[in-house]
Design brief:
Helix content: 25-40%
Shape: extended
Distance between the termini: 40 Å
Radius of gyration: 16 Å
Order of helices and strands: HH
Strand content: under 5%
Largest sheet: none
Oligomer: single chain
Number of helices: 2
Amino acid sequence: MAAHLRVFPRVAEDEAPQPANVRVRLGDLFPLLAQAHRGNYLWLNDFEDDEICITEDLYEVLQAFRSYRPSA
């Protein structure tokens, strides 16, 4: 099932932002993020300081991948 993305209006300075509560499959997110990254879409930079919650096993895989050095 494709993810439905929505654009939200900017939050006024005196309003507290609502907590994130939308669940999206990574499989739906990957192609969108890859396309935005390849196309150097500036809106992607707006979110680079945002935090996301991931499962502990995905975190461990990403940590291992970060230190992975392919042999020549």
